Amino acid sequence: METKIYDGTQLVEAAQELKKGNLVAFPTETVYGLGANALLPDSVKQVFTVKGRPQDNPLIVHVASFEQVKAYVDNFHPATEKIVKNFWPGPLTLIFKIKKDSLPSIVTGGLSTAAFRMPDNTKTLEVIRTAGVPIVGPSANTSGKPSPTTAKHVYHDLHGKITGIVDDGATRIGVESTVIDLSDPTADPMILRPGAVTKEALEAVIKKPVTIDRHLVQADETPKAPGMKYKHYSPDTRVLMVENDDWEAAVEWAKDQHFRTGVLAGPTIVENVRESVAATYMYQDDSVTAATKGLFAGLRGLDEKKLALDLIFVQVVPEEGLGIAYMNRLKKAAGQNYFKK
């Protein structure tokens, strides 16, 4: 199969391919998704096959309007209207209890709930509207590996396996959407996966508490939302997180071990260690926003076989605001492992 790259003039063609059951990757503001018609079980099954993803892992259903969600849900959480008005389209996924058998069980992972999102990308919204069907959209990469933030990343992982890729350049945010559980209308909303929409931002809008589920889903458990497993987003090369005060010790240790080491960090750290390591990938600046946008691209870049690295050291950031989402992805990429003196 030849994987086609669709530009902005070919969106109708991309939509037609999706509607009839073929796989087309699409851009969002977070990462690129692997699209399939959510109403065709055989099409959705191809997503799991192409990604190598376990079928117990539920998928996010992407829509072009909140009206589409109403076809599958009839009992909404009281906070839903305010949340949708303030954060859609945007990097926020909402989990609802759905009408029985309204979506194929392969979409929901066999659960009675489903996750919905309206992405903030004009090309993708046009594709969904033109197709006239909701589309599933897990990250368009090999399962468990760093998520794709450019069409080139998607092509690297999936060329020859999918019909096409809608190209809209690099994504703006760089990590997947916040996932919030609204399936119990009587309970406080709960964040299952952190992202760019923070607990504080949600609470400011709904004027009620929002809790965070910090449980790490093990390999034998069925997650309620994507990205909840203990280890995820991992390159083939071993990753270790490095605290700000430990960089000198970490680099010296790696040299003593004769490791070919890569460093993924902001300019201040990279400039201090560049001469002592085999390769570096530098964030655009020292901000948490730049780190979040560059994390997956950096992990992918340093994992290239031609670099032949033994180890990747990655900068940590404070776990507050957007830093919670960054550290959530980084901890899973590193299997929760820090460099220890």
* Residue fraction in strands: 15-25%
Write down the CATH class of the largest domain. Alpha Beta
Computed structural class: alpha/beta
Largest sheet: 11 strands, mixed
Superfamily at the CATH H level of the largest domain? Answer: DHBP synthase
User: Rg from C-alpha positions?
Assistant: 20 Å
Strand order of the largest sheet: 1-8-2-3-7-4-6-5-9-10-11
As a percent range, the share of helical residues equals 25-40%
What is the multimeric organization of the chains shown?
A: single chain
Q: Could you name the ranges where pLDDT drops below 50 across 5 or more consecutive residues?
A: none
For the record, give the distance between the C-alpha atoms at the N and C termini, rounded to a whole number. 49 Å
| β-strand number | 15
Mean pLDDT, to the nearest integer, reads 95
Main location: cytoplasm
Function: Required for the formation of a threonylcarbamoyl group on adenosine at position 37 (t(6)A37) in tRNAs that read codons beginning with adenine.
Binding site for L-threonine: 30, 62, 117, 177
GO molecular function: ATP binding; double-stranded RNA binding; L-threonylcarbamoyladenylate synthase; tRNA binding
3D architecture notes:
- This protein folds into 2 domains: about 1-210, DHBP synthase; about 235-330, Threonylcarbamoyl-AMP synthase, C-terminal domain (Rossmann fold).
- The chain has 12 helices and 15 strands.
- With about 350 residues, the chain is α/β, with parallel strands linked by helices.
- It is about 30% helix and about 15% strand.
- The strands form 2 sheets. Strands 1-8-2-3-7-4-6-5-9-10-11 form an 11-stranded mixed sheet, sandwiched between helices. The protein has a 4-stranded parallel sheet with strand order 12-15-13-14, sandwiched between helices.
- The longest helix has 15 residues, at about 290-300.
- α1 packs across α6 and α11 packs parallel to α12 (about 320-335).
- Its EC number is 2.7.7.87.
- Required for the formation of a threonylcarbamoyl group on adenosine at position 37 (t(6)A37) in tRNAs that read codons beginning with adenine.
- Keywords: ATP-binding, Cytoplasm, Nucleotide-binding, Nucleotidyltransferase, Transferase, tRNA processing.
